[in-house]
Amino acid sequence: MITFDLFTTKHHVIVAKVNPFSSSYPILGQLLSFIPREVFKKCVVETRSDKWYKKLKTWDHFVFMFYAVLTGGSSIREVVK
């Protein structure tokens, strides 16, 4: 079970528990949940791929391209259209 902080008040944190494999969870999110974020972050740090980013971090670029592969696109421009 994954928990997400919905919002924080002065004294309480409201938490929602989400099953990442339920039918209401988007398929793209389910597929991305198989990718260990800590390993991904470690690779980003080792390769310094976020060092000079302007608007699009490495994880965001990965998600865009992952979606492009799933939908048959080959570039971010095709995905955005």
Spatial strand arrangement across the major sheet:
1-2
The H-and-E topology, N to C, reads as EEHHHH
Number of helices: 4
Q: What summary fits the major beta sheet?
A: 2 strands, antiparallel
Helix content: 40-55%
Give the structural class: alpha+beta
Q: Which oligomerization state do the chains in this entry correspond to? A: single chain
Q: Give a count of the beta strands, DSSP E runs of length 2 or more.
A: 2
Query: Would you tell me the overall average pLDDT?
Result: 78
Q: Shape from CA axes?
A: flat
Describe it.
The protein has one domain (23-80). Helix content is 44%, strand content 16%. The chain is built from 4 helices and 2 strands. It has helices spanning 27-32, 37-47, 58-71, 76-80, and strands at residues 2-8, 13-18. Strands 1-2 form a two-stranded antiparallel ribbon. It is flat.
Note the main attributes of this structure.
single chain, 81 residues, alpha+beta, 4 helices, disordered N terminus
Describe this structure in a few short sentences.
This protein has 81 residues and is of the alpha+beta class. The protein contains 4 helices and 2 strands.
Give the topology, please.
Elements: E1 2-8, E2 13-18, H1 27-32, H2 37-47, H3 58-71, H4 76-80
Antiparallel strand pairs: 1-2
